[in-house]
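[agent] plan:
  1. take the single chain provided in the ticket
  2. run structure prediction with default settings
  3. attach structure tokens to the ticket
  4. add a short note for the reviewer (M.T.)
[agent] executing step 1
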Amino acid sequence: MINERLANDEDCKKHLPLNSQNLFTSLLDGVILCKLVNCAVPTTIDERVINKKDDMNDLDKEDNINLAISSSKAIGCQLNDVNTSTVINQKKPAILNYLWQVLKVNYNLIS
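[agent] step 2 finished; step 3 output follows
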């Protein structure tokens, strides 16, 4: 689903296609997370505030992750166990829950 939604996004091309081998490391700069939020609810995140440069430092990446998480909560995702360190430390169950929450909004699966 993520590959399908972001296939034409130039900022995500370096990470795609996502698969079981690269999923968690591809999320470390936060760009895909921010883009998924905007797929779910367009213009939730202003594209100008997403750090997209190739040589991002850790602070830029953390800013993107924080932006994605707070924006995800704003669009209705239930993310009690997710924060920046969840993504950075690649806590897989919590990240998969986070992705599921955003995808539910993407595909209007929230009841």
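[agent] step 4 note for reviewer: The chain has a mean pLDDT of 93.
[agent] ticket updated
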